[in-house]
Specification:
The complex is a heterotrimer of chains A (522), B (206) and C (414).
Chain A (H helix, E strand, L loop, with lengths): L1 H26 L7 H7 L28 H33 L14 H33 L8 H21 L13 H23 L8 H21 L6 H36 L6 H15 L14 H13 L1 H16 L3 H5 L1 H24 L1 H7 L3 H31 L6 H34 L5 H6 L2 H29 L15
Chain B lengths: L3 H27 L13 H13 L51 H4 L3 H9 L17 E4 L21 E4 L1 H12 L24
Antiparallel strand pairs in B: 1-2
Helix pairs in contact in B: 2-5, 4-5
Chain C lengths: L28 H40 L6 H8 L1 H4 L17 H4 L2 H10 L1 E7 L2 E7 L8 H16 L7 H11 L7 H9 L19 H8 L8 H5 L17 H13 L5 H7 L4 H12 L15 H9 L10 H5 L18 H13 L9 H8 L2 H12 L9 H10 L1
Antiparallel strand pairs in C: 1-2
Helix pairs in contact in C: 2-6, 5-6, 5-7, 6-7, 11-13, 14-18, 16-17, 16-18
Classes of the chains: A mainly alpha (522), B mainly alpha (206), C mainly alpha (414).
Organism (chain A): Pelagibacterium luteolum
GO biological process, one term (chain A): oxidative phosphorylation
GO molecular function, one term (chain A): cytochrome-c oxidase activity
Chain lengths: 522, 206, 414
């Protein structure tokens, strides 16, 4: 297959050239914020530190979102999306916990088809991806984009319609899956007829965000905006192509499946998580991020490399060698953008560790950002053929998936929600200790979950690779680790209940004296 | 970056390029006009059974893609020769799977050809494997006082049979078993078979 | 966390209106270094994999040609590999044990009859040129492809029967289809009867191999009983097995009985077999052993584990003394036809089954061989060796009719 080999080489060369061009352009100031912007936003000697004592309006990089009325417009759609997302999070994690328990109590709840492992697990995945993460991500976009563009959200009623459609589709999708009506591929189980509704709902989310972008009052788009704006373009393309019915079949369908499923992580959930962290970390700390140039590498590197890693889910399978290798190589190349993001975010946090003590939301977000680095490093290494032979087909990959989708994205979004809610409602959390409890429940729960599955999965993989050990050994030895996972999962689920309580407690009308109502603390 | 239009165009361009590389090019390479010799289409019953397999989510624990001997001892375990893309000619939705919480099933019909064994195993896996963590599927069966004409009675070891009556397989269970028994890709791989050969080929020295 | 705290805030803390932005720092050089290093690594990996890929494709084509019989090999090489062990390279056979080919009227009738006998095998007394033989020719139907059958039959007929007719592969295929269900020829008389050819005076065939099966045993085998699945439901109607479900046809009765005992007693572990044997009586185990030992079935095993057949042949015939592994055939009889009751036939056993048992011995899950011989041998073999020898044994013709004892004796003769 000379032609395919050439294509392969071509693809990688194109990616490398694109990255090299980007670095060249950066070093030649081709893509720096232009001079006009610099004149407007910089005042001599004012970069890099925040001086207090002046009024907000007269200072650069300061903008009052409350007085300008921007937040007020966003509050309703954001609140609706957050409430729905929180409900799905709780339901989704209960299903996750049930699925986890069923792996070591296989005869528990086995009398109904709807409660069989294969369906409960699927419900968990779809509810947390489409119900929780996607909605909380869109909520963060609706909150953040108008703020960084200094203009109120346009068409603010559309997201409400979108939310109604989206949640109806997620609910119907869940009912369909529970009753055995499924498209039958991982991450794409919701029947395509309902996917049409999801896609339509997506339009109602996209239009206001893009209209807001076009109406923006600032020239320069802050890095969070790149991630969010690219994400809302990428995800619909992925979703529609992968869900086209009657087009895909056989192994080609499998490549579409994993091209989609990994891009949902890379080009949808990751932009949500990284974009959110990019906004809230400097926002809470009050210091800028380290480098514009590095953030460009992080973003375009993600786009170039992450988009081609999906087939590492089929290593050693019935796909052309070159496409598997292509995904392996691109997976490892992901080190570049991940290190770039790590430099920008961790340096900002690391130089301001005091803020972690001060701000509970920052604690969630900084932890999540750190987990992005960890998950990506782990993913790059896991894609190497030698490592993949052990870890693929085992619970290790489940641990990895949760490191990305949970420890990184979900925990980052928890922080964002805790930061947004007081500013949306003008109220404070009445029991900050519960926020702290939520943090430690999910962090400790996740640690048990992750280390349990990683160690158990690795041992399981080694057992399966050794022909002199019967297959049964790979099952038996994982049982204690699966039990540990249930313990961790139970703590995480408990944490989510606390989270839901916190969200409810601040959104429900409170009997708090008007005098206490003020901009809340972190 | 200051403009949304270039940002959008380049972002989507990169995604289109990735789609070309990961989906379209391999799709063209793997496309073939006809199935390999030795592979037959699913019968109506097997196809119904496949639908049951899909709806029960068997794929979340069972892969259908034996690996090459250079990578893993799948052949020794009786899971069959390394599969090639042509082996999946009739499969949609694909069920390649990413987990081996249970064993690979692409050739389960060859290595476990007993219908009655599968029915027992589906009704209660722990009747055979006391260590198994596979779900039981009692809802695919019916407990009757007496088997009627045409009923397939499930053989159950003592301790797993109901106190009274017999366990009879539903049509779904029979279909599912028919599908499992049809899983047999032991015919020789076609010459132009495509698979990931990225592990050390046999010719290399140890 | 209330408004009261506001005045005591950390003085470094910003006010609410701070807007995130990026500083203008340049790219740190380590990041550039890592990017360059990864780029080089990626290019090298791609190049390396392409080499693997091309090679694997070539090997797969070879494998497929081998499996579908498109390999072009002269009949001579095939004869030396598969026939000469018994009929000898000079075609003279072994006195009183293996009939000669040279000058045999059977061979003189031409390649079609030779091919027919190769495909069906002979089970029963046969007279060749005034000498009487106890015929135990295995069926080679599973071993040779149509092309190979045609080449080999043409070669044998031309060299020892002086018959120049050339059998075409298509004719061999047609013949194979015609005789596939007929089983072995019943001695020389059976050959004469079935083909209508003049073959001289042939001794009458006396059926002695297949005992009538008691109805209860037949029910166990074909229908199962209570909580037990039938034997045939997994091992096939003819005891031929598939993949890692073993071929039982032709295994010694006592060997089968011992294995059933060992499953019941937990000396040999297999969950499904444990269920099946739980309620078998000793008599039933004996009867099942007797039934399967008498079955004569063509082989359906194939070398399909991707093992190295030359290495497998070396291990089977010579062993590997650098590993202190004796040859398989030194205990399991010439051509792996078995030595009852301790040493089961290995020939035509499924490669996945043989390899899985070797692995089980090596891993300590199977511990019931006599004198722990197999535990020792299996542990010394690498995974690749296990596959190689299993593949080679799967490529052999099945155990012929007759007892393992006679064949072992023949082996010693030579």
């Amino acid at each position: 297959m000379v032609t395919m080999g050439l294509l392969l080489a071509l693809s990688f060369v194109v990616s490398l050239l694109a990255l090299a061009f980007l670095i060249w352009a950066i070093s030649n100031k081709q893509v720096a914020p232009d001079q006009h912007d610099a004149r407007v936003i910089f005042e001599p000697g004012d970069e890099g530190h925040v001086d207090s004592g002046e009024t907000a309006t007269s200072r650069p990089y300061h903008f009052d979102t409350v007085r300008s009325g921007i937040d007020a417009v966003s509050t309703r759609p954001v609140a609706v999306l957050l409430i729905a997302a929180t409900v799905w999070l709780v339901i989704g994690s209960v299903f996750g916990l049930v699925a986890s328990l069923k792996l070591h109590w296989p005869d528990w709840l086995s009398d109904h088809a709807a409660l069989t492992f294969g369906r409960v697990r699927t419900l968990h995945l779809n509810l947390v991806i489409y119900g929780w993460l996607s909605q909380v991500g869109i909520a963060a976009m609706i909150w953040v984009l108008p703020r960084i563009f200094h203009t109120p959200l346009r068409a603010p009623r559309l997201p409400l319609i979108g939310a109604a459609l989206w949640n109806a589709a997620v609910l119907l999708g869940a009912i369909a899956i529970a009753n055995g009506w499924t498209d039958g591929e991982e991450w794409l189980e919701i029947p395509w007829q309902l996917d049409l509704v999801l896609a339509l709902a997506g339009v109602f989310f996209m239009v206001p965000l893009i209209k807001t972008t076009l109406a923006r009052q600032v020239h320069h788009i802050y890095v969070t905006g790149w991630y969010f704006l690219a994400g809302i373009l990428w995800f619909p393309c992925l979703f529609v192509i992968a869900n086209l019915p009657y087009v895909h079949s056989g192994v080609e369908e499998a490549t579409v499946n994993w091209w989609f499923a990994h891009n949902v992580l890379g080009l949808w959930l990751t932009p949500i998580g990284v974009g959110t962290a990019y906004y809230f970390i400097p926002k809470i700390i009050g210091k800028p991020v380290f480098s514009y140039a590095v953030s460009l590498i992080g973003f375009w590197g993600l786009a170039l490399f992450y988009s081609q890693v999906g087939i590492h889910h089929l290593i050693g399978g019935p796909v052309p060698t070159w496409v598997a290798t292509l995904s392996v190589v691109h997976s490892v190349m992901m080190f570049i953008p991940v290190i770039a993001v790590a430099i920008n975010q961790h340096i900002t946090v690391g130089q301001n560790l005091w803020a972690l003590k001060e701000s509970l939301p920052l604690r969630f977000i900084a932890f999540g950002a750190l987990m992005y680095t960890m998950a990506s490093f782990q993913g790059s290494i896991e894609a190497l053929r030698s490592v993949n032979s052990v870890t693929h087909f085992t619970h290790y990959t489940v641990g990895h998936a949760h490191l990305g989708a949970y420890a990184f994205v979900t925990i980052t979004m928890f922080g964002a929600v805790y930061h947004m809610l007081p500013r949306m409602t003008g109220r404070v959390f009445r029991w900050p200790a519960l926020i702290n409890a939520h943090f430690w429940l999910v962090v400790i729960g996740f640690a048990i979950y992750f280390f349990g599955l990683s160690i158990g999965g690795w041992l399981q993989g080694l057992a399966m690779l050794d022909g002199t050990r019967p297959f049964s050994e790979s099952v038996i030895l994982t049982k204690p680790y699966l039990e540990a996972r249930s313990v961790g999962g139970a703590l995480m689920t408990l944490g989510h209940l606390v989270f839901a309580f916190n969200v409810a407690s601040i959104l429900l009308p409170q009997r708090v004296p008007e005098s206490v109502r003020t901009v809340p603390a972190e | 970056m200051n403009n949304y239009l270039p940002l959008s165009i380049i972002s989507l361009g990169i995604l289109a390029f990735a789609t070309l590389m990961l989906v379209i090019a391999p799709g063209i390479e793997m496309a073939r006009p006809e199935p390999p010799a030795g592979l037959r289409p699913y019968t109506a019953e097997e196809q119904r059974g496949r639908d049951v397999y899909v709806s029960m989510g068997c794929l979340y624990c069972h892969s259908q893609q034996p690996r090459a001997p250079e990578q893993a001892p799948d052949g020794e375990r009786g899971w069959g020769r390394p599969s090639v893309s042509a082996d999946y000619f009739y499969d949609s939705p694909h069920q390649l799977g990413t987990m081996r919480t249970g064993p690979d099933l692409l050739n389960v019909g060859a290595r476990l050809p007993s219908e009655s064994w599968h029915l027992t195993h589906l009704y209660q896996p722990r009747a055979i494997f006391d260590w198994s963590i596979m779900p039981a599927y009692p809802f695919l069966f019916e407990v009757k006082a007496k088997a009627e004409e045409g009923d397939v009675v499930v053989a159950l070891p003592p301790g797993f049979a109901p106190a009274e009556g017999v366990v009879v397989a539903s049509q779904e269970a029979l279909d599912l078993t028919a599908y499992l028994l049809s899983l047999d890709r032991t015919y020789p791989a076609p010459e132009d078979g495509i698979r990931d050969d990225g592990y050390r080929p046999r010719g290399d020295a140890e | 966390m209330t408004a009261d705290r506001r005045p005591q805030r950390d003085p470094r803390h910003p006010d609410e209106h701070f807007e995130p932005y990026e500083l203008d720092a340049s790219i740190p050089w380590p990041l550039l270094g890592i990017a360059v290093a990864l780029g080089v690594w990626g290019a090298a990996t791609l190049f390396d994999t392409r080499r693997h890929e091309e090679r694997a494709q070539v090997e797969r084509i070879e494998d497929t040609r081998l499996a579908t019989g498109q390999a072009v090999e002269p009949g001579h090489a095939l004869f030396e590999a598969s026939c000469a062990t018994c009929h000898q390279s000079n075609g003279l056979g072994i006195r009183r044990a293996v009939p000669p080919l040279a000058g045999s009227p059977f061979v003189q009738h031409g390649p079609e009859l030779v091919a027919n006998i190769m495909l069906r095998g002979i089970d029963g007394p046969i007279r060749v040129n005034d000498a009487l033989y106890d015929g135990h020719m295995p069926s080679f139907a599973s071993v040779f492809t149509d092309v190979e059958v045609a080449e080999l039959a043409s070669y044998v007929a031309a060299r020892w029967g002086e018959n120049d007719r050339v059998l075409e592969a298509a004719e061999a295929a047609e013949l194979r289809g015609r005789v596939s269900d007929l089983g072995s020829f019943r001695g020389g008389a059976g050959v004469a009867e079935d083909t209508g050819l003049a073959l001289g005076d042939q001794p009458p065939f006396a059926s002695g191999t297949l005992q009538p099966v008691a109805p209860e045993i037949s029910a166990l085998i074909f229908e199962g009983r209570g909580g037990q699945w039938s034997c045939a439901s997994c091992h096939g109607d003819l005891g031929q097995g598939r993949e890692n479900t073993p071929r039982l046809a032709g295994l010694p009765a006592d060997y089968i009985r011992k294995q059933l005992h060992d499953f019941a007693a937990g000396r040999r572990l297999n969950e499904s077999m444990a269920v099946v044997v739980a309620e078998l009586t000793d008599e039933e185990k004996q009867a099942l052993g007797a039934y399967y030992s008498g079955l004569r079935v063509p082989s359906n095993a194939r070398p399909d584990l991707g093992g190295d057949l030359e290495r497998g042949e070396q291990l089977a015939r010579e062993g590997d003394w650098s590993l202190t592994v004796p040859s398989c055939f030194s205990c399991h009889g010439p051509s792996g036809f078995g030595v009852a009751p301790e040493f089961p036939p290995l020939a035509a056993q499924h490669a996945a089954y043989t390899a899985s048992q070797l692995a089980a011995w090596a891993g300590g899950q199977r511990t019931n061989s006599s004198l722990d011989l197999m535990e020792h041998i299996s542990s010394a073999l690498s995974a690749a060796d296990r596959r190689s020898v299993a593949d080679y044994l799967a490529s052999l013709p099945p155990v012929p009719a007759g007892t393992g004892d006679t064949l072992a004796a023949q082996g010693e003769d030579r």
